[in-house]
Amino acid sequence: MRMKTYVIATLLLVSFTPIVKAQNAIKDLASQASQPMSGLPDSLKKIWTLGGLITLNFSQGSSSNWAGGAQDFTMSLNTVDNFFAVYKKGRNRWDNTFNINYGFTQTSDLGLQKSSDLWDMTSRYGYQLDSSHWSASLMFDGRSQFTNGYNYYQNVQGKDSNQLISKAFAPAYFLLSPGFTYTPVAYFSIFLSPASSRITLCTDKALAPSFGIDTGKSVLYQFGAYASITYNHAIAKNIVYNGRLDLYTNYLKKFGDINVYWTNQLSFKINKILSATYSMSIVYDDNATKPDGSLWGTQFQSLLGIGLALKL
Questions:
Q1: Which candidate, 171, 78, 174, places its Cα nearest to that of 123?
Q2: Tens of pLDDT along 120-149?
Q3: Which of 59, 106, 208, 258 lies at a CB distance of 3.0 to 4.6 Å from 3, suitable for a disulfide?
Q4: Which pLDDT band holds residue 175 (cuts at 50, 70, 90)?
Q5: How many percent of the chain have pLDDT more than 70?
């Protein structure tokens, strides 16, 4: 799949114009989903806002002598956690976020398997230009996973098998981007960088070629253009949408091919301690290949859970 530059313009126009023009936006998410932590001195409460949301979803099932056929035992556990720290003083603003998504499923026949595994941290400093919605910015982003990942399949004998395809920091992606941020409203922003450095790190050299890294090496450096669009707001009573779309093209190789990293999360508040969470991620990386050498192509993952929620 080759995704050309015009895809960006079409995607932005179709997906985000209605959001920017929305006239009935409910109260700003930052003011309703977080309050400064009480442990901060009064002088810091005026310039720092800290908060987060921790959710834990659990399900379990069992069956015995079930004619319809089912696993004797199944259990799944998943946590989706979001933390943030925002510094704001005068024209200076420094946004920091750290997100975790981790889960597993245990069955009597297949054993323990991961269902999700991701950590992502972003830090962006901006200096507001005059009284406009534009800021000169510097952004850092890093993401990887916590534990080993496997490709599950049946071997030639028909038995369940697995193959190691990823580890913690194998791969890991790091981005450093100077640019400009456009923030027309508090819950929506567009960051643009014409000169962005992107590093793919793989601490296991045996896995490195699967992420576009030359054999025997552990790092791939790219230099290109980068755009990041974020939206974080209540879209209805007790429903919050958190979305992020990252687009990157490499000047040094295959310029015009677009790497896509798109995350979406809907949080539904049921009561003070119960919530429902739906998350969907779409990833396209033209450097990511399967063990047989073919491209992974467009990757898709979705998770739905109901469980406990703790707002910090």
A1: 174
A2: 999 999 999 987 899 999 999 999 999 999
A3: 258
A4: very high
A5: 85
List the one residue out of 198, 197, 224, 231 whose CA is nearest residue 29.
231
Rounded-to-integer distance, Cα 77 and Cα 303, Å: 11
**Confidence tier at 164 by pLDDT (50, 70, 90):** very high
Q: Select from 33, 17, 3 the least CA-distant residue to 242.
A: 33
**Reported pTM:** 0.82
Contacts of 126 (CB under 8 A, 6+ apart): 92, 93, 94, 95, 135, 136, 137, 181
Quick count: other Cβ atoms within 10 Å of Cβ 167? 18
For residue 50, CA distances in Å to 7, 79, 127 come to 36, 20, 20
The string of pLDDT tens digits covering residues 276-286 is: 999 999 999 99
Nearest to 184 by CA among 241, 124, 132, 125: 132
Sign of the Cα torsion 172, 178, 179, 183 reads: positive
